[in-house]
Amino acid sequence: MANIDNEKNIKVPYRFRIPAGFFRKTLIVLSLAVIWQIYATILDNPLMFPTFSASIKGFFGVIYSGELISRTAASLKMLLIAYAFGIVIALTLTILAINSRIGSDILEVVTAMLNPLAPIALLPLAMLWFGIGHNSIIFVLVHAVLWSMTLNIYSGFTSVSSTLRMVGKNYELSRLGFVFYILIPAAFGSILTGLKVSWAFGWRTLIAAELVFGVSSEGGGLGWFIYEKKNQLDIDLVFAGLLAVIMIGILVENVVFKTIEKRTVIRWGMKL
């Protein structure tokens, strides 16, 4: 018995371990950087394809000057505003859809009509209705993030088990209480997927929209930065802007959404 008690009291020292997947992914990124550097060196045409080292130098140069940071902040501000609008509208549509037949019909018809419509196709209308500036871009971004978010939320709500639905009825929750206390926690896996997909759609649409008319929005955002540097033949800074787009996408996916996922669906045992 004494031996067993001693074994229980033995504390195994904590060892920090970097996941093996991190090394593999880092190796892939480094390999791509080396291939980029070698190809650009052989091509020897910085106006067509600058080297990786030149692009990295330009990247840190515009960060140090503050230009890239201010442009990125302007872009993210617009996307976050549109994202918030999208979440509110998506929740409103799905709550109406699960509580009434007419709401369900409206959701099905509207999503069937507008979901296939490319956000960029709305640029001419946005310019006519809201002028060239923040409001036009936000309008286009709301359309970009809304429908994938709405469909995933609705799919998650409708897949909630009948047992959990009965729990809500037994507690005599109001309709909104039923949504926020039963449906949203139970369907959070699908909701999080919709949030991730819609963020990716919105980020791509934002860069494309700014390439067209972002210049009026306080000097433009990250997309206009890329277009502007192309016109000035600073191709290394064009690649620096593209690197910023990629890095922000990776950061949001692997830091923000991964953290939310670990603290919600994985912690709750909804995903292994």
How many structural domains in the coordinates?
A: 2
CATH superfamily of the largest domain: MetI-like
Q: Report the portion of residues in β strands.
A: under 5%
Average predicted local confidence, pLDDT:
83
Structural class: mainly alpha
Write down the CATH class of the largest domain: Mainly Alpha
Shape: globular
Structure description:
The chain has 272 residues and is an all-alpha fold. It folds into two domains: 19-49; 54-266, MetI-like (MetI-like fold). The model has no long low-confidence stretch (mean pLDDT 83). The protein is built from twelve helices and no strands.
Task: Name the features.
single chain; 272 residues; mainly alpha; MetI-like fold; 12 helices
SSE diagram, text form:
Elements (H helix, E strand, L loop, with lengths): L1 H8 L10 H24 L8 H14 L1 H33 L1 H14 L8 H8 L3 H25 L3 H9 L4 H12 L1 H26 L8 H10 L3 H32 L6
Helix pairs in contact: 3-12, 4-5, 4-7, 4-10, 4-11, 6-7, 7-10, 8-9, 10-11, 10-12, 11-12
Summarize the structure.
This protein has 272 residues and is mostly helical.
